[in-house]
User: Fold FAD-binding dehydrogenase from Enteroscipio rubneri.
Amino acid sequence: MENKFDAIESEHQGLSRRDFLVGAALAGVGTAMVGTMSGCASGAPAEDKGSSETPETGAEAGASGEPAFLTPPNPISDDEIAETIDCDIVICGAGICGLPASMLAAESGADVHVLEKGSSYGVARLCTAGFNSDVQTKLGLTTDRKEFVTSTWAISNGVQGRTSSYGLWFDNSGPYVNWLEGIFNSKGYQLIPAASLDYKITNDGIGMPGASPLWQAFAQMIFFADSEGKFFATGGDVDWTGIMEEYATEKGATFHYGQPAVQLIRDDSGRCTGVIAKNESEEYVKYNAAKGVLLTTGDMSGDREMMAHYNVSLSKIIRYNINTNDTGDGQKMGMWIGADMDEFACGDLWPFAAVMTDGTLPKLDGTHFYAGVANLPVFMVDGAGRRLMAENLPFQSPSIPKLTCTSDGCAWSIWDSAWKEKFPEGGYMVEDYTASNTQEEVDKNVELGVTFKFDTIDELIEHCGFDKDIFTASFNRYNELCAAGEDLDFYKDPLWMTPIDTPPFYASKHCSSMTSTRGGLKNDERCRVLDKDGKPIPGLYVAGNTAGSFYGNVYPPNVMGSGIGHGQCFAWLAIKDILGMDYIHANI
Assistant:
């Protein structure tokens, strides 16, 4: 099979997650997958979001055998500087985390300059998120702090994330959302908790029959709505990042688009005193930041060498729906002046993107990119025919076995023609923006060569290339467990344990796809970047996907909106810390 990074991309991959949602909403689809729609990327122009381009190739490894990106470039000398600007705060990245930071800095009277690599501010994503804010508590929607902190630590395989970080977000997210609500209300918009809406989360195993009891759900998303209460799924497509940029500009923030930050400045005392950027004329501009520098440049998925260095499993991903501007710029700049980095990254993954047998991506109609029924909790095996998982695990979880337990990052879903009668009524979304789980869709996928139809299991084995002995053993074992009513191998819920015994039989191959990485510069409970001795670098702060010290090697899909929610809140707290403003310090 060809290199996964060079695999052919389907036409719809030029759409972002938000674009998929908008397309579905316009088509009258009232559901969307929200558990993983989280992230914090630097503000690329709208057309750049969710680009179909594969990540750029990293530089060659250095003489030491380490990746070249770990070697600091030569410092930019003063005689190369075309312009110098003095200010209070520099924010690198005008995405969904840099924007609220710029709003608070500007409204607080700070002279703040925002450097953005792209030609515009970051495109709005699905939601923000928080706990026990006014918009939630007035509706009786409350969350227990201990339950959230301990569950999130366990679910994300904490390790490098700190429980204190989870508590910091929990304690300050309510005040952050309250502040944000006041601003949006003044602009004629509303914030609405997702948990208050009759809006089912699709294909994530939460709230569905047979949902795994191992995953405690925290439905913390808060949607942006217009004055009538309409949000993205009901025709109210609020450009909330645009509203943020407008507010920050009104309060005095200065945005510099097409000006990527390229080097941080650290003086002899060890303090980070500013940033050097490159303008559209390829000239260097030096920004002296008297109070502090905040890095919100997004993740590293656009640099495949860097991404693979921090999580080699992500090298198996075939389908990318990333912002190609997110090439780990903030992380690299931080490391070049002595900052420490998380040991590993995790991916914001989608588990069931359809893939052809040769490893390329199909051309599917509309916004659908999952094959019908293949994304439901049917029998799933690897390329040899070996069963992989409890197939009813919540949304992102089926991605992990495919990336760690298979050679190609793919799996096969297998089911029979009586699937509709066997599956629990109301147990799955029939129509959503990722797939149409109908027999009609299955038939269409068969015509497209995405799903394959067989009269016998032997034909299925031969076509899919399974090892006959391995597959037959797995298949027979699965049917035996279905007949017994208990999955003794993976403990999949009995509701979904239905035998595969009614021809014709179907098989469809799928891969994991990714929108961004989680993992970055280590930081403390004040959002200050840490050096390799665990000490803060004075004047340097980080938030969003540029920051580490929050996730383990698993992105927790059941903490819905965690990427956007904690990234925005921490960027807001970073500005508070820079300006000496008060916030909740329960952990320090």
User: Anything to note?
Assistant: The two ends are 51 Å apart (CA to CA). The longest strand covers residues 505-518.
